[in-house]
Amino acid sequence: MESGTDAFANVIQRLPPRGSSSKDLFSGNQQRTQELINQNEALSCYTSRRNSTTSNANSEPQEVAPQFVKFARDSSKYWYKPNISREDAIALLRNAPPGTFIVRDSTTFANAYGLVVKVNQPPPGVQYSGPNGEELVRHFLVEPTIRGVRLKGCVNEPVFTSLSALVYQHSITPLALPCRLLIPDMDLQHMEHQTPAQQQLLQQGAACNVLYLFTCDTESLTGPQAIRKAVSSLLAKKPLPKPTQVHFKASLQGITLTDNTRQLFFRRHYPSSNVSYCALDPDDHRWSIPSSTGDIPASKRIFAFVAKRSPSSADNQCHVFCELEPTQPAAAIMQFANKVLGGPGAQQPAVTRAI
C-alpha cells in the first residue's frame, strides 16, 4: 500500500451516507411541483416540441436504443428543472461531484435548453479558485434542429432525436463535454454532497494491492457485457494466465496501475474521462489462489474496468483483476472507484442500467 494513501474500505466508511435531505428550492409549492412532474412525463414530446425549421443542423440523428432513452427519460424528474434560474443552478451544483448536471429551459434562446454541469477543471484562461468554485459549473446550450436536438457550437456533436437520448449518450461518453454526465437516481436538492475535507480525500485517492489477471479488447462494448466478455475470455484460456500483483489507485484523475516488479509494465494511467465502466464481475466468478501451506485455495472476487485503448481511440479494453488483501475487498475497491470516477456503482440502483 502506498504510504499516506487511505485504504478503500476505510475511505468508504468516511464518506457521507446518501439520502440526507436539504432544503428544496421548490418547497412549499406543491402545485408547482406537480406541474414539474407533469412536464417530466411529457419528455417524450421533446423532439416535436423543440423542432425548429430555421436550424441548419439537418444531419441524421445519432441512434440510441429505445430502452436507454427510456431509462434517461424515467430519471428526468431528477435532472430536468425547467424553471430553475441560472443562479440557483450554480448554487445547486457547485458542491456536487463532477458529472452532476441539470437541464433547464433557456431564458435567452427560444425553444432551447441550458445544460448545467459540474466539471473537474475550469475552462482555459479561467482562474481556479477551489473544488467548490463557481468556475467549475459550466453552461452549455442545447439547441433545437430540424431532426432533434444537439449541443450548440460543437462541430463533432451529433444530433439526437430527443433530449433524453442526448443525456443518455453523454453519460456513456463525454463527446464535446468536459466530462461524462452522471444520471441521478434521486433529486439533487435532496442529496448531501461531500465537504471540502471529503473532496480533498477523493482528490488524493486511495490505493491497495490487487492481482492483475487479463486485458481483453472489447471494441465499442462497455458495461456489464464488456466485463462478461473479458472474464469469459480469461477463463477460457488454457492454461490460465499467471496473475501479477499490481498497485491499484483510484482518484479523481483516473485509475493508475503500478507494477512494482516490472514483470508486465511499470506504470499505466487511465484518465477518468477514458474510463466508461468499472464493477464487480456480474456473474460473480471467483479466482482461486493456491495456499502456500497446503490449505484450501482462497477464492477471490473478480472485478474489472473498461477504458479506451488510448485517448484518441474509439475502441475499448476491459482490464480484469481480483482482490488480494483481506482488508481491501473488491466491493470496497469498486465502490470507491465509482465514487471518484462518477461511474456505475456510485449510484444505486442505477448501477447496471447506465451502460
From TrEMBL:
Entries under SMART domains matching the protein: PTB, SH2
Keyword Hydrolase: yes
Keyword Hydrolase among UniProt keywords: yes
Record keywords, A-Z: Hydrolase, Protein phosphatase, SH2 domain
UniProt xrefs under InterPro entries: PH-like_dom_sf, PTB, PTB/PI_dom, SH2, SH2_dom_sf, Tensin-like_SH2, Tensin_PTB, Tensin_PTEN_phosphatase
Annotated TM spans: none
Domain of life of the native organism: Eukaryota
Gene Ontology cellular component annotations, sorted alphabetically: focal adhesion
Molecular function GO labels: phosphoprotein phosphatase activity
The family this protein is said to belong to: Belongs to the PTEN phosphatase protein family.
Name under which the protein is recorded: Uncharacterized protein
Organism (species): Anopheles atroparvus (European mosquito)
